Queue: 4 jobs
Job 1
Amino acid sequence: MKWPKRRRAAGPVARSRGSWVARSVVYGSVVQVSGVTGDVSVAGGEPPLYRVEVFPQARTRLTVEEARAQPARLLLARQGVVPFTGRAAELARLTRWRDGAPPVSVLLLHGSGGQGKTRLAARFAARSREAGWDVLQARHASDPAPVGPALVGPAAVEPAALRPTAVGPAARRADKTGTGVLMVADYAERWPVADLLELIRDAARQEGRPARVLLVARPAGAWWQPLANRLDRMGLEAQQLRLSTLADDPITSAGDLFAAAREQFAAALEAPEAHGVTPPSVVLSKDSGFRSVLAIHMAALAAVDRVRRSPAQAPAGLDTPAQFSAYLLNRERDHWQTLHANGRVTTPPDTLGRAVYTAALTGAMTYQDGRAALTAIDACRDGDAARLFTDHAAPYPSSTPHAGTVLEPLYPDVLAEDFIALTTPGHEVEDYAPDPWATGAARRLLAGKGGLPGWPRHAFYALASASARWPHLAEHELAPLYLTQLELVLESHDDDAVRLGLTVLATLPTSVLQRIRVPNPLPGFAGCVSFAAISAGVTCGMLADGEDPGIEDPGVENLDDEDPYERARAYLRHAERIALTGSTEDSLAAIDQTLAILLPLPADERVLRRVKALKERVLEALDRTEEADQE
């Protein structure tokens, strides 16, 4: 039986789906065939949307030898080495949301990397399970982690028992006697918005029980507001909870967090001499680099491991987040060197590092996709990929060993992003030598992606997130994607997660922004959200710096930030661009900003007519959208 792939239609698709089922795959539509023999080709089959799994409860434990070889593994949320602390207000807020009256409700838990979102979600999931709720997690179909038996061959069809419409003994339906069902979706910003909507629509099919969808993400930017607006039009409640730094929690402090982590890491590494290590003054100084839990834990881990290895030497030279990352990443390099010296791997450490770099961009992939990625990024020759996969799995084994995936990335995500930054030339961290190979590596990977679905989403996020903290990446790696390969960015419009990276444009130097050209798309342009984010980033940077970033608009000179008419026209151009894409709410917001500037001024009739005509068109489009939603 062959299931041809095709793009999903933009609107709702008739389907037969019921309650969520653990260890199952949810498809866009369901086709059941029985009583036939021989090959069958089914036209109109839909690709899978997401996988449903029981939210994990068990924690793995590292041996002392494993922890000493790769100390960074002690930072993983699934290890739970440092006990959960604080967040009483956030847990109370999540509990009120869960126990609220609406039958279906969505909450976005968001915050910058390293703030403890995953740990908080896991604690809330455990408490919800104790309160009688069934707790599941959703993984997007582009994540290669398996659910149920592995599939073999391109024409393999998953057993009917794994489909929500045909539940068999291999799939366990959530306990219908539970109080309700809580679905957790981590990395929600990496999901296409259309697939998030399908997940949320499925929440209404939980056979009369209350359903809660907890989305966990870093940003709540351009991708969230259109989704929240859509949910509002569907009559579904959508809330958000921004996770601030735990160092600001009333019952904790940076010093307390460091001390708690130090004790646990010293025990895990069997380093009693490290129990007296004091936090570096920079950790206690309210430096912006140490406002996340992970940054403080990384500082504690690096200090403890440094003392364990050199008891007579004080942990000097570890004063910045970059230096703590460099220390832990150098310890990873030490491990690769040891593996190579002992003959456990044949790949030289530099080449192994290129595989680690590739994995940090792509995430875990199937064997075939991984081989194509290594070739595209020029990490090795195609014929050497198999050996590199085997050697890479020695320090970074697959988290799902029966999935057949390769290139398990370095974790935590923030450390992997720092690895991208420190491996790429242009930084000023003396203790970490970059690899010239990494210059342009992300662009090589994306240019050679060959239509593989997971690459743009994960790679753009990793590169953009790292660029937000490492200026040399923003200017020399991320910006060139927009300066020379804008078509590559826009053609990834199905990957809504790309929008996170586009917001970095607003922070780039004006000299870089001036070289960016943002063409007007055609009406109905498929990359509407990505284009709107590019336009917003350029407009924001232009208005902040007082210079025109070079948006192509005949007759428009450099922006004079002292001229309110110029500022109004900048907002108007932005409103016109995103109106072409169908983003009506964002266009109306830009129109309102234009009018707020123009109305107190002597009338410029030509510009006012242009604004009013645009607003009428946008309002008409909004009315048509609302009517369609009500049908």
Job 2
Amino acid sequence: MDPLHQDRLRVVRWPWIVTLLVIFGIGVALTVANGWQAHAKEFLNLLVRWLHIIYGIAWIGASFYFIFLENALERHNVRPELSGNIWTIHGGGVYYLEKYKTAPPKLPPYLHWFKWDAYLTWVTGFLLLVIVYYSDPRTNLLPPGSSLAGWLAVFIAVGSLVGAWLVYVGLSRTPLLHRPALFLWVGGVLVAGVAWALSQIYSGRGAFMQVGAMLGTIMAANVFFVIIPSQKALVRAAQKGEALDPAFVSWVQLRSRHNNYLTLPVLFTMIAHHFPFTYTHGANWLILVLLFAAGVAVRHFINVTEQQHHTTLKTGGAMPYLLVVAAVLALGVFYLTAPKGSKAALSGEPVTFEEVRAIINTHCHVCHATHPTQPGFASAPAGVMFDTPQEIVAQAERIKQVAVDSEYMPLGNITHMTQEERSRLGAWVSQGAKGPVK
């Protein structure tokens, strides 16, 4: 088979694709017949998120591995057609790899391509945005009380994905591309500006995910529009016996290295929704930028250490101050996101469990119950339920964290919890989170 067409997904033939579509159709029919829409959405969220993580690990893992190879190549005393070679050991075996400056004189019969992991990471990520944010923008994408129409919020979000790629392409066509430090600073300022702007439109969680999706789109589009086409051009040139300009190969490698530096910031946005204290802060855009900067610093430390491996094996990592910079940035975020004491707690006003339970029943129990009554929820989020006094008391600190410190819950404040009610919950926890009087 032509190396240009050696595609791993070609093993999935049309009969199997049709079979998968039939199974999906059965699921849709069962959902409609039994009124399982909320359950189906939650189950689809699970499957798509699982696939997103699987393909994301494969893609980012490959990126880390090939950047490591590029960084750690032995470039001395190698044949003229080679960029370098490397010996590695893994899984009980010793491997020897060579990298050609362009392509070998004769292509091998089998050539392994790395592209579908990137494509499917983006596709599953976009589907997650649709499932969690775009299908119901009032709940997660927009802040409570926003007057922006839901369709317009989604239009802006999707448009920002396209806009991010176009701006990146524009920057990459300027001399900045060959001045990495300046390219980083300009790109960083643009990301900070976008993060601030989106935080004025969307909820903190929505803004975080949207910025991460924009960076992920740049990465995937880099693979689709730049890296894979250039690799195909290299293969075609080798098949025709033509030489490919090494400068062109270096240009492509720069775009691949950009992807490598974006990985840690994008990974942070993938997990950020688990930590409301980051995106519910008043300056959430700044929190995002600081953690992005920490991730880029760590990634650069790893890259430089790999590039200078002969020295670092003897003296330690290169540019270790980058780890200190990352640690200081993380400490700054830790300080900025620390909880502040509530006025009710400081005043010492007693709060009874009965008052707390009334607040919980009104604002939280519609979702956090064995059988939620809030539309769109088939089960209690994160398995947290407030059916009994014991369950409420056991979750006291968590209640304070999400409803008082970060004010993240209720989602989108759909039940309209007041600041006074939040203060009363905070005071109850500060006073020992006592259960009902027996």
Job 3
Amino acid sequence: MTNASEPTLFRLRVAYPKLGRLKYLGHLELIHTVEQVVRRAKLPYAVTQGFSPHMRIAYTSALPVGTSSTAEYFDVYLTELISAEDALARLQAAAPVDLRPIDAAYVELRRPALTAEINEVRYLLEVFVRPEFDVTDEALSQIVFGWYDQGAQIPFHRGKKTKTLDVRRLLKAEGHEVLTDGCARIQLCTRCDNEGSLRPEIIVAAFDQALRGLDPGVDEQIVSTGIQQLTVFDRYNVERVSQSICVDASTTIEPLGRELEAPEGSLLSRSMR
């Protein structure tokens, strides 16, 4: 039974990128910025009940600082139904370029939260090899095959805790291509659930150590600091390129029911040229 005193709410799902210098925003800074955008867009957003009411809005899982994205989402609850097209146009006009929303649609109120629904995340890594090292497609393949074959458990430190990356469980698929300019591109398809998710910077550090013949995280510590200090790789870029709902081995659903276009200036758009 519906309580007549409760307002009717509408759940607007918005897709947006996180690019350029804004990839260095922490999650709390990102939340503050997005809420400012919603307010400037003059959307009729709902607020929570209680002594300290705040905007009813929910986000996907936090990105590591320094990781860009072409596929972030937030759900904002509205008290009035306005067209998704109008809402998107208002948000685009109010947002900085590198956070400018790219799509929006209404979803069911009873649909699971974004963090509960999304269970597959894809990353694109761009690594630049120092001139004194020779990295080949074969070498990267042997490392990945070895991790799967041995059921690798890569230890790493996060804060004061020691954690383990279970490669077989969290890394669903991997692909790579070594280019002629000392750059390599690595694609990761990862599992994301209540038991944990894969932090891409740990894989970057593990590759860097394995290419030097080390047992990653054992012979040399891996510390989850967001931006890694590496030896084989001079520098690297990481981008989250999709977040999806994997129903079964053959069915994957996008959070808005359709694929997103790669924004100009993203690592994904550069890799498609």
Job 4
Amino acid sequence: MAPPAGQIRPAKYLGAFVLIVVALYSLVFFTGNGKATPKLGIDLQGGTRVTLTARAPDGKTPTDEALNQARTLIETRVNGLGVSGSEVVRDGTNLVITVPGADGEGAKSLGKTARLAFRKVVGSPAPNAPLAPQTTGSAPPASTSGSPAPTSGSAPAGETAGSTPPSSGAPQGRPAPLLEGQPASTDPSAPPASDPAQPPASDAAQPPEGQPDCQAVFNGKYSDDTTKAIAEAKACRQDPALTTLDAQTVQQALQAFTCPVDVDPLIGNDDFDKPLITCDQDKANKYVLAPVNPTADDKTVKEDDFSLYTRLTGEDINNATSGSDPQGAGFVVSLDFKGDGGSKWGKFTTANTQQQVAVVLDSQVVSAPNINEPILGGSTQISGTFTQKEADQLANVLKYGSLPLSFEASEAETVSATLGLASLQAGLLAGGIGLGLVFLYCLFYYRLLGVLTILSLLLSGGIVYAVLVLLGRWIGFTLDLAGIAGFIVSIGITADSFVVFFERLKDEVREGRSFRSAVPRAWIRSRRTILSADAVSFLASAILYVIAVGQVKGFAFTLGMSTVLDLVVVFLVTHPLVALASKSKFLSNPKVSGLGGAQQAGVDQRAHAGSKTTAVKEA
């Protein structure tokens, strides 16, 4: 026979809770590594966290397929570091790399796109000298001092940078026919305007509508919009005319170019079938580089023509290893080609002996050695001013392939193990203080009911801990400082559910009911309030989890999880324990239960109401 409305069989509910606890801790101790230790975030155990923000080559939102492929490749690179416990988690369009311990510095370079290509150097490299002060809109003059020796076809030594070579109609310092329509007033050799009242040249020297301002691009200025910045860089720095202009014009274009001071929008986004103006990784030298391969629709180039095209990319690499430079100090990265890659490399080096070839990683020149003789045998080396760590990192990213997207590190955080331990101790101390204050308040104000509150909170903490261990084992959830903050806040939410129930119980006692008869009525009237309050808390946590990024998600997750477990404890533990206490003669004593004040207040209230009724009748 079912119990009356509001009354329950406490043993049934407490038994269900015990089964839940047994099941959880059985999974904790008999699955996985069997250790009852939650997975800690780097801010608690020390390590490195890097947040990589993805951007597609066209500047649009990356696709799910590209992001998942990038996550898989970066995860392979992370595993190549040899640090156990490392992970890569996708967070919207971000990838979050977490490497615990003190060996996580290498994670900061794992977001490199690793689009490797070999490009022939056109002309001679030039030093990246800072621009001299000049009138706005004027092109920087090419200086003969400090510039490399001119190649064949360049202007005589006495010819100034302002003279126009007869073989090119492009203005000085402008590499592409795209800019031939821009006003010639940007040329430093142009005569001054005869009418001083006319506006300055900087106002008139605007590019035609719909065309990028290559003068600004060459001065290192790009649009704030990523899509436009990539388009500007491609239009101005990857003009196909760079391979057809005479050597002097190409060299003057290189002199006019300045390496971007901030992040280069072209990094990882250059087209392999077009030439490229770029810099080395230190931004000390700048280069004009030939295309990697001809365009697909160019039928004039023979398949065996390697005079300009290397036709070699990172996809032709079979393996990459780092080691000491056998020719001297420093380190090198050795590459082994696969398939016909070795044959391509042999044909290119044969056709370009005594020429320079640039090893380009993510649109930047890593090294540009001179080809002294044909290199046969299917392997080669990348040399440069590498440290051992840099050489190891480069070999790692080349070994596992290039990413389908380019990334920029939007956040990088390294926490020492000592600081992580101090943070963990501070978090536990804060939680202990908060829990202790709740205990004192409950004991002072509710007495026996306060003891039941403390017991319920301890049992709630027990199942929360088990769930944390299992979530860390199953889905990689890590407990960080933000998560601890969420648990501390949840203590108040859990205690609030008890307060709602106990205050409703006091109201029933004030109305003259006994402790035993007040429990079912108080539970029925408080249950809806508890459900509504927890539903609001959970909804707020869910919304915060969806819209937040980074560590704030940890706060929202732990707060929402604690709210759900609060309902489990209130329904399966707190209510049954109060029902059991109400059936005990000793525990239901008003002095023990803490309901004596409410009971006396009810007696006084009824006595006062009775005296008023008597006075009215006598009147």
